[in-house]
């Protein structure tokens, strides 16, 4: 991939979960909102980049990624039972935001932000799943390259700024799951498209 790093892509695609032979729609780009990324910057899945790297504007594609190539296998060690008091505001449990199926931002001891989905709430604990929502899934992509060109220095600087949080995207780096803060960002499954 080294010789073709730093290509800009605008891609239209439909994503299906094809685990166990089923075909379930996961997400679809819209005509006015393509999936935009620059290769080599960690925005798109590495296996996704490899599949589209040699394609040109107008080329169509269809490919499937195994769980290992996509978001990894589910790991039950990433399902945590946390003390309910962690989710308190002003001494009271935040039942307005902390609900079953809600995706919540959590901060680790070293300041990193992770997102987890609430599985269950008891009198004392909140059960959170920190696995990526698509972990353990076989993913099939079908789409078209809307535009591609060698990324300019300006484009790379803009994307680097967005990924670091300076562009208002709070450093979601492609795994924000729709929680990019209030910086005018549109987070897709694989991208953080801020202020385009």
Automatic annotation (TrEMBL):
It is found in: Cytoplasm. The keyword Transcription regulation does not apply. GO terms for molecular function: isomerase activity. Residues 5-76 form the PPIase FKBP-type domain. Keywords: Chaperone, Cytoplasm, Isomerase, Rotamase. Its main location: cytoplasm. Its EC number is 5.2.1.8. It catalyses: [protein]-peptidylproline (omega=180) = [protein]-peptidylproline (omega=0). It is an enzyme of class 5 (isomerase). Also involved in hydrogenase metallocenter assembly, probably by participating in the nickel insertion step. This function in hydrogenase biosynthesis requires chaperone activity and the presence of the metal-binding domain, but not PPIase activity. Belongs to the FKBP-type PPIase family. This is FKBP-type peptidyl-prolyl cis-trans isomerase SlyD. It comes from Segatella bryantii.
């Amino acid at each position: 991939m080294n010789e073709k790093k730093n290509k800009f892509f605008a891609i239209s695609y439909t994503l299906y979960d094809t685990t166990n032979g089923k075909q379930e729609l996961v997400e679809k780009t819209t005509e006015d909102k393509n999936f935009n990324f620059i290769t080599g910057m960690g925005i798109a899945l590495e296996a996704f980049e490899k599949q589209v790297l040699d394609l040109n504007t107008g080329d169509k594609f269809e490919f499937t990624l195994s769980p290992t190539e996509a978001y990894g296998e589910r790991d039950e060690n990433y399902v945590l039972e946390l003390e309910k008091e962690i989710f308190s505001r002003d001494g009271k449990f935040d039942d307005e935001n902390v609900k079953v199926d809600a995706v919540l931002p959590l901060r680790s001891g070293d300041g990193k932000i992770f997102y987890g989905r609430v599985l269950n709430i008891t009198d004392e604990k909140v059960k959170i799943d920190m696995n990526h929502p698509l972990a353990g899934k076989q993913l099939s992509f079908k789409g078209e390259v809307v535009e591609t060109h060698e990324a300019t220095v300006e484009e790379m600087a803009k994307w680097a700024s967005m990924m670091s949080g300076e562009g208002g995207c709070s450093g979601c780096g492609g795994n924000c799951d729709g929680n990019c803060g209030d910086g005018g960002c549109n987070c897709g499954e694989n991208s953080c498209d801020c202020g385009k």
